[in-house]
């Protein structure tokens, strides 16, 4: 009786499958296998991609503290953006001097698994060049320098474009026609920025003079502030800077005068003085380069992007900016973007009144990157 019941159950199952147009030996098993294979392939692809991302550790070396509100803070915001976008692990070291110490910091990061290292100050260049030769499997990227190796790139942005725009604002604001400029070191990057700022101010106000006060430090809030006070005591009513903190702007605020910042929007740090600032946006470049490492397409290069790339910009003008400044900035921005304003196109004369760039000519990138002279209207020496 049990055998008969079992046979009836099997016969009923076969009939029900036949009614669906399929039998146990037909497409049913094949479809199940195909679906499983597809799901497995998708899972394997996702796992592989995630593993590749997890294998990447990115190191950042900073010349100042991440809380400086300026240069290092801007780079660290780029690091956080990188983590957010790609999910990679990052490590960083603050306040590393521009000495041989940086070599050991790079080696320490490599010991921690770093396969990409960004060194974010000019003085790290020669040390990174040396270490890059020792670790050909690591991607090295140096900010603001000019050297490359097979596995070391350099990168920077045309911040001089935004400095020119900030000069327009300062040139419209000054009543004494004297602007103080607190600057770190006399290297081409800094000199180029001073010249661009001066040319921007003179494009609006030809009588403007820009007095440079050197600090010989990237980060020293007290020293930066003292340098600004010296310029203010000498008749400046606007302070600009190539420094990492808001110290110079706070000096201007204490005097009831005006300031132009640098690196980030520093409006909260000197709200009664701050008008605007040339600012950095490093994040997209960091994502692009680390993704290239993950994809196996990273190659040594020299990058110098401009406002069209978004790596540099002028921060929004505050209510402290003079009337008409926004319109003047917008017009100059459009000219920079369409190529009709090159900032360093002739005629340009130096402090001695000698023509350095003839009318109708423009400086090449190489000439700008090696600029070691001041334009007419700058007060100060390149020491």
UniProtKB/TrEMBL annotation:
<feature type="signal peptide">
    <location>
        <begin position="1"/>
        <end position="21"/>
    </location>
</feature>
<dbReference type="InterPro" id="IPR003760">
    <property type="entry name" value="PnrA-like"/>
</dbReference>
<protein>
    <submittedName>
        <fullName>Purine-binding protein BAB2_0673</fullName>
    </submittedName>
</protein>
<feature type="compositionally biased region" description="Acidic residues">
    <location>
        <begin position="28"/>
        <end position="50"/>
    </location>
</feature>
<keyword id="KW-0732">Signal</keyword>
<dbReference type="InterPro" id="IPR052910">
    <property type="entry name" value="ABC-Purine-Binding"/>
</dbReference>
<feature type="domain" description="ABC transporter substrate-binding protein PnrA-like">
    <location>
        <begin position="56"/>
        <end position="335"/>
    </location>
</feature>
<dbReference type="GO" id="GO:0005886">
    <property type="term" value="C:plasma membrane"/>
</dbReference>
<dbReference type="Pfam" id="PF02608">
    <property type="entry name" value="Bmp"/>
</dbReference>
<feature type="region of interest" description="Disordered">
    <location>
        <begin position="24"/>
        <end position="50"/>
    </location>
</feature>
């Amino acid at each position: 009786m049990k055998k008969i019941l079992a046979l009836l159950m099997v016969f009923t199952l076969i009939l029900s499958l036949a009614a669906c147009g399929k039998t146990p030996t037909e497409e049913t098993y094949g479809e199940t296998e195909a679906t499983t294979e597809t799901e497995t392939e998708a899972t394997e692809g996702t796992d592989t991609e995630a593993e590749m991302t997890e294998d990447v550790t990115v190191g950042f070396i900073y010349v100042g503290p991440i809380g400086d509100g300026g240069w290092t803070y801007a780079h660290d915001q780029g690091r956080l953006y990188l983590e957010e976008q790609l999910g990679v692990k990052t490590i960083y070291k603050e306040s590393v001097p521009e000495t041989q110490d940086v070599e050991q910091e790079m080696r320490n990061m490599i010991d921690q698994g770093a396969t990409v290292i960004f060194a974010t100050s000019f003085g790290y260049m020669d040390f990174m060049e040396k270490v890059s030769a020792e670790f050909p499997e690591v991607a090295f990227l140096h900010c603001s320098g000019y050297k490359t190796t097979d596995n070391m790139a350099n990168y920077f942005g045309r911040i001089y474009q935004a400095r020119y725009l900030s000069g327009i604002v300062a040139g419209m604001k000054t009543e004494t026609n004297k602007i103080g400029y607190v600057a770190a070191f006399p290297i081409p990057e800094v000199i180029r920025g001073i010249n661009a700022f001066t040319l921007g101010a003179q494009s609006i106000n030809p009588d403007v003079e820009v007095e440079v006060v050197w600090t010989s430090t990237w980060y020293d809030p007290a020293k930066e502030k003292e340098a600004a006070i010296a310029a203010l005591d000498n008749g400046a009513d606007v302070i600009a800077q190539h420094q990492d903190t808001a110290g110079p702007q706070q000096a201007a605020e204490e005097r009831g005068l005006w300031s132009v910042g640098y690196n980030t929007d520093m409006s909260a740090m000197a709200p009664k003085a701050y008008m605007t600032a040339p600012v950095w946006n490093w994040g997209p470049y960091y994502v692009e380069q680390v993704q290239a490492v993950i994809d196996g397409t990273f190659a040594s290069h020299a990058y110098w992007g401009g406002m069209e790339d978004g790596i540099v910009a002028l921060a929004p003008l505050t209510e402290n900016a003079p009337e008409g400044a926004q319109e003047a900035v917008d017009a100059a921005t459009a000219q920079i973007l369409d190529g009709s304003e090159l900032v360093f196109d002739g005629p340009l004369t130096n402090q001695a009144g000698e023509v350095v760039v003839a009318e109708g000519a423009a400086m090449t990138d190489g000439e700008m990157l090696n600029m070691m002279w001041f334009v007419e209207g700058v007060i100060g020496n390149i020491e």
